[in-house]
Amino acid sequence: MVIFPGGTGVSGLEVYTWEAADGCHGGSPHLHTACTEGYVVVEGRGELETLTPAGHTRVPLRPGTVAWFTPGTVHRAVNHGGLRVLVVMQNAGLPEAGDAVLTFPPEVLGDADAYRIAASLDPGDPEGSARRRRDLAVEGFQILRDHLTRGDPGPLLELYRQAVELVRPQAAAWRDIVAAGPTAALAATSRQIDALMAGDGGHLREAEVRKLDAPTPDDRAFGMCGRLETYRPA
């Protein structure tokens, strides 16, 4: 994971083409408990399927589309053909530290050990376990979606409660991640503004350019929504 300007994270995503039980092709529905996530569509077509207390929505995705969603938004990337996006993630490092919670059925979400096992990838069969993880998340997602379309947000609110309990044990450690990323970036900008107000441009002499190498096929991990392409410093 590379920290991008502003303490955000950036990665490429090739959305899964696997067909789910409801006939959609795509990734594992999930939510983030403390991060806003953004999609910049670079290729292909699809849709972003979301669930919030306000209801169920489908956002069309095509090249040039920019869409983002705040914590608590259950989201699912659906691939209609060749869908590739650039993912920009708030608070780089938090999703990797457990900020994301998959929409498994309630009985799995209510058991921390069962959740951990269901969410983990088998090193000996990463694709197979990623498919099983996706299918289980879609199973729970369908329950949430069906209730919301009937005007019943109860299961979604229960998901929120269970998500809080799942992330609560590690949440305290997230402060260090935020301090090293967004908070440090904000503090640096504040110092630069103070210097400029004082007529001091010394920080301009520290100008530099950083380059990230394009990911290779071997770098692609099995993420929640698709094959993840993580950038590395040149």
Could you characterize what this model shows?
Helix content is 33%, strand content 30%. It is of the alpha+beta class and 234 residues long. Strands 1, 2, 4, 5, 6, 7, 10 and 11 form an 8-stranded antiparallel beta sheet that branches. Strands 3-8 form a two-stranded antiparallel sheet. A two-stranded antiparallel ribbon has the order 9-12. The longest helix is centred in the middle third of the chain and has 24 residues, at 126-149. The mean pLDDT is 94.
Can you summarize the main beta sheet?
A: 8 strands, antiparallel
Q: Which series of helices and strands comes N to C?
A: EEEEEEEEHHHHHEEEE
Radius of gyration: 19 Å
Strand content: 25-35%
Global mean pLDDT: 94
Poorly predicted segments: none
Query: What is the β-strand count?
Result: 12
The chain-level structural class is alpha+beta
Give the end-to-end Cα distance, rounded to a whole number of Å: 13 Å
Question: Per the principal axes of the C-alpha atoms, what is the gross shape?
Answer: globular
Number of helices: 5
Helix content class: 25-40%
